[in-house]
Amino acid sequence: MELPLFAVLQRTPRVAVTVSLVLFSLTIVPALYSLLANPIFHLSISSSETEGPLPSDHMLLNHMNSPSSDDPSSLVTTSTSRTQIRDDELRCDLFNGEWIPNDESPYYNNTTCWAIQEHQNCMKFGRPDTGFMRWRWKPDGCDLPIFDPQEFLEMVRGESMGFVGDSISRNQVQSLLCLLSRVEIPQDISSSPDKAFKVWNYTSYNFTLQAMWSPFLVKTTKADPTDPECYLFNLYLDEYDTKWTSQINQLDYLVISSGHWFSRPVIFYENENISGCQYCGLPNTTQLPSYYGYRKALRTSLRAILENFKGLAVLRSFSPHHFEGGPWDKGGDCVRTRPYRRNETIPEVADLKNHDIQLEEFRAAAEEGMKKMGLRLRLMDTTQAMLLRPDGHPGRYGHLQTTNVSLRNDCIHWCLPGPIDTWNDILLQMMKTEK
Ligand SMILES: *[C@@H]1O[C@H](CO)[C@@H](O)[C@H](O)[C@H]1NC(C)=O
Ligand SMILES: *[C@@H]1O[C@H](CO)[C@@H](O)[C@H](O)[C@H]1NC(C)=O
Ligand SMILES: *[C@@H]1O[C@H](CO)[C@@H](O)[C@H](O)[C@H]1NC(C)=O
Ligand SMILES: *[C@@H]1O[C@H](CO)[C@@H](O)[C@H](O)[C@H]1NC(C)=O
Ligand SMILES: *[C@@H]1O[C@H](CO)[C@@H](O)[C@H](O)[C@H]1NC(C)=O
Ligand SMILES: *[C@@H]1O[C@H](CO)[C@@H](O)[C@H](O)[C@H]1NC(C)=O
Ligand SMILES: *[C@@H]1O[C@H](CO)[C@@H](O)[C@H](O)[C@H]1NC(C)=O
Ligand SMILES: *[C@@H]1O[C@H](CO)[C@@H](O)[C@H](O)[C@H]1NC(C)=O
């Protein structure tokens, strides 16, 4: 189904969730498990505990996207309510704009940067086109400067920054490591071999950068800890994931994000008891509506930030995927080689309800956060920009072409170099605004 971009953002009610749930458990779950168990998606820098893809079924999520057409926080309203101040970069709305050609990019490649992970090293695996690297984001009201690594490092001298989230969060960290690699290669000072928690020190600047793995953001355990193949998780929706929440009081900057993992089978706990589940197929367990868990988990993690953090916290909004021609497990692919223009008709993108929830929870938390000295909670609303970048994903170039994975293409993560580098342009710009 083709819809104009903005129609996508103002969705209308669709199929009943229960129907989708039944369809999901009958047809999708087995496929989901097989993808999860598939070593092709092995992410080389994650530990065995945490590795995995971000499966989100396109068709499924299309059905399950419950609409919010009456929700004032849709992407569209931000563009009309925006106060646009031309020639004032610092106060410009960075999140509405167009992608425009940039002959100067890319600013690094797989020989100059050490930090590109295999699955996002699209050129290594033979991606034939390079045009996807040659765009920059142009907000309507101003120019967004390209990331200046020297300027960034000067700004964060003696400070520390952490990223919390899933493999897309890690994707952004690797982009940042690459952008900074033109100035300095950091020392790995991670305190344990656990690849899910990495710490680097830019010693010339005494700047530390941390990547903290927490795809569900809240306390999570495996339903069967003895089974390494177990991909049913227990989510404690009202309990912090202390692996990251215990770290953040030492940080000056925090970038948090999540979303894709919440379409997996999970059992929810609240008040220390099972409150329901999602695609778990357990008897006598309430199937809770989709997005129930996401909203609660996000709310809990924003609360952790309000309680324990007193720097600049950035909630990075949902990163859309671009499967076309089928769901992720049925041959869906992303073969486009150009960004969309804003006025173009684009295929419907699944899972945007996550974005609505982020805006709602962000607003509630930001209001709360204003009362706290030092804390600044900001939204990095890159969803709309990324909706326009179907060309930026690895697709079939996230792995060796000899591997028989014709059915599985990665239209979720982003090639490096690629459009995700823009997130760091925006991050630096937001930091400058706050200084
Ligand atoms: C990477 O960039 C360097 C410096 O611009 C260039 O010399 C080199 O050929 C590039 N390598 C690849 C594989 O594109
Ligand atoms: C880098 O990309 C080139 C293609 O542009 C590829 O031939 C090469 O193997 C890649 N190198 C690394 C180290 O990934
Ligand atoms: C490095 O920064 C930390 C704070 O992040 C500070 O406590 C420490 O004194 C700094 N070290 C030097 C050598 O400047
Ligand atoms: C980072 O490196 C600087 C310079 O060597 C050092 O003073 C600082 O203690 C290091 N920071 C950490 C957290 O190890
Ligand atoms: C958990 O559920 C049990 C049985 O339904 C109940 O007795 C117990 O009080 C509950 N625990 C909490 C902490 O609510
Ligand atoms: C489910 O609940 C029913 C009614 O309370 C009970 O008879 C049945 O044993 C329960 N099944 C399981 C597996 O707990
Ligand atoms: C979109 O805008 C571009 C540039 O303004 C224009 O060339 C193109 O025809 C427009 N496309 C549609 C579908 O309106
Ligand atoms: C690759 O997988 C497809 C789908 O499972 C199968 O039809 C095909 O025979 C496989 N090709 C090879 C070379 O194994």
TrEMBL record:
Residues 144-430 form the Trichome birefringence-like C-terminal domain. The keyword Transmembrane helix applies. Residues 91-143 form the Trichome birefringence-like N-terminal domain. It is a single-pass membrane protein. One of its GO terms (molecular function) is O-acetyltransferase activity. The chain crosses the membrane at residues 15-36. GO terms for cellular component: Golgi apparatus; membrane. Residues 56-80 are annotated as: Disordered. It is found in: Membrane. Keywords: Membrane, Signal-anchor, Transmembrane, Transmembrane helix. Coiled coil: none annotated. Residues 63-80 have a biased composition (Polar residues). Pfam families: PC-Esterase, PMR5N. The keyword Transmembrane helix applies. It comes from the Eukaryota. Belongs to the PC-esterase family. TBL subfamily. This is Trichome birefringence-like N-terminal domain-containing protein. It comes from Brassica carinata (Ethiopian mustard).
